[in-house]
Design a protein that fits this description.
- Pfam families: Cytochrom_C.
- It comes from Dechloromonas hankyongensis.
- Keywords: Heme, Iron, Metal-binding, Signal.
- This is Cytochrome c.
- The chain is mainly alpha-helical and about 150 residues long.
- The protein has a single domain (about 1-145), classed as Cytochrome c-like domain (Cytochrome Bc1 Complex, Chain D, domain 2, Orthogonal Bundle), CATH 1.10.760.10.
- The chain has helices at about 1-30, 30-35, 60-70, 95-110, 125-130, 135-145; strands at about 75-80, 80-85.
- It has a two-stranded antiparallel ribbon with strand order 1-2.
- Strand 1 and strand 2 (about 80-85) form a beta hairpin.
- Helix 4 (about 95-110) crosses helix 5 (about 125-130).
- The radius of gyration is 16 Å and the shape is globular.
- It starts with a helix and ends with a helix.
- Bound molecules: heme C.
- Heme C binds next to helix 2, helix 3, strand 1 and helix 4.
């Protein structure tokens, strides 16, 4: 019983650590372009607030978000009627768990209102699968278009 309680306590702590990592990864690596509140910056990077939750209603959106952090993207992207032509770096130096955490941070902090009711957090396994078969820019653009 004692062992079970320790295991449960560790699980809870690990959950908290993952949540904190997501914010830490975001603040240190994403906020410079996308801004601390995810509002984006004109001419630099599109908003991540209020623009991503709905995408998770379809499978393409669920592939798009892990895909863009693994592969990066430098294309013309319209968001909320504004055209962005910047460079989204890839973030392959981060672990699958860190990338899942940063995406979950963005989704559950900046996109809560639009998340589908059956949303389940993005898993590290999904990042691992994406890393193993890195999407092309063409695939990313198609998945983005299919998950508007
Ligand atoms: C150097 C600036 C820069 C940094 C740093 C950056 N991004 Fe981006 N991000 C961009 C740009 C520019 C785009 C649009 C790419 C394009 O036009 O093809 C983008 C697009 C995105 C998109 C897709 C948005 C959409 O509407 O489809 C997501 C999600 C995203 N970034 C997440 C992140 C995360 C998470 C981080 C941190 C790990 C991060 N970005 C760091 C510049 C940046």
């Amino acid at each position: 019983m004692k062992r079970l309680m320790v295991a449960v306590a560790c699980g809870l702590l690990a959950g908290v650590a993952v949540a904190q990592d997501g914010k830490a990864v975001y603040d240190a690596n994403c906020a410079a372009c996308h801004q601390p509140d995810g509002a984006g910056a004109l001419g630099l990077a599109p908003p991540l607030a209020g623009t991503l939750g709905k995408r998770l209603a379809v499978p393409e959106g669920r592939k798009y978000l892990p895909g863009i952090v693994i592969a990066g993207l430098a294309s013309k992207m319209e968001s909320k009627g504004v055209l962005y032509e910047g460079i989204m770096p890839n973030w392959q130096q981060f672990s699958d768990a860190e990338l899942a955490a940063v995406l979950n941070h963005v989704l559950t902090t900046f996109n809560t209102a639009e998340l589908p009711a059956d949303f389940t957090p993005i898993e590290a396994d999904e990042l691992a699968a994406t890393r193993a078969k890195k999407p092309t820019a063409k695939e990313l653009r198609a998945w983005r278009a299919a998950s508007q």
